[in-house]
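Weekly modeling sync, notes
Attendees: AB, CL, MP (scribe)

Item 1: holo prediction request
CL wants a bound-state model with NAP before deciding which constructs to order. AB pointed out that an apo prediction alone won't tell us much about the pocket. Agreed to run with the ligand included and paste results into these notes for async review.

Input as submitted:
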Amino acid sequence: MTKTALITGASSGIGKAFAQVFSRKKHNLILVARSEDKLNALKADLEKEHGIEAVVFSCDLTNTAAIEQLFEQIQQQSLTVDVLINNAGYGDYGEFASSDWEKLQGMILLNTLALTHLSRLFLPDMIARGFGQILNVASTAAFQPGPMMAVYFATKAYVLSLSEAISAEVEETGVDVTVLCPGPTQSNFGQVAGMNKIPSMSNVTSDQFPTALEVAEYGYNSLQEKEVVAVHGALNKILTFTPRLMPRQLIRTGVKKFMAG
Ligand SMILES: NC(=O)c1ccc[n+]([C@@H]2O[C@H](COP(=O)([O-])OP(=O)(O)OC[C@H]3O[C@@H](n4cnc5c(N)ncnc54)[C@H](OP(=O)(O)O)[C@@H]3O)[C@@H](O)[C@H]2O)c1
């Protein structure tokens, strides 16, 4: 039977690439983000190209009531979510003490609360059916504290920890949980987060990074292979492993030097 994948943040970047990968694999799609026009254009393209069915929900996932409404609408339309891709997220560069509270609050709500809420809403049905796949998008930022992007790094550490814990709880239920940890990737993320303000990144252009499609394909394969923690790229694997061998003080001063210049 055709499976259905719900993808948050499907209007751009890695989420849009996930929609392309899952439609190529003949999944029907539930596309979620705020930009309804972009989602509708993507729906039309993917339905035409791959002969799948896509449903669009324009939803601000920082709003808890909107998440509950989204869940109810999915139930009312008798849609079954076999695959949940919690991808929507953003960052913001700058010192914690002077950062914009609205942005920080929204980041925590989107990167952690929405992901937790959606997982909690859809997981029981997956367990009851004996099948389900959840892919949570964290980041290489999850593996160390991140001065100058303190809240973003902390939200991704939360996603890593939560995903690993749930994955252990659902072992042998037929549900698999993968946490995808990309490094810098071509998308709108850098622009939204103001990454150009990082002094050591000033000469780096985004075409030096992997494409969103490469990252999404890696995420798809990791999910099928039931990998729990999936760090994209050889260099990122080394960079996320080495902090485990270093004193924490050295890690935070090293990251601060890189981030603040
Ligand atoms: N690109 C990187 O370098 C990188 C590295 C590591 C991890 N990541 C992670 O990858 C994930 C995807 O990011 P990306 O790189 O693809 O960035 P992106 O191109 O900026 O995409 C972000 C997506 O999130 C959606 N979104 C933002 N606010 C939302 C809200 N309030 N409610 C619903 N949807 C919302 C956006 O859609 P709308 O604006 O239409 O709502 C968009 O579809 C994020 O979790 C990010 O932290 C990215």
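Recorded for review: The mean pLDDT is 97.
Action items: CL to compare against the apo run; MP to circulate these notes.
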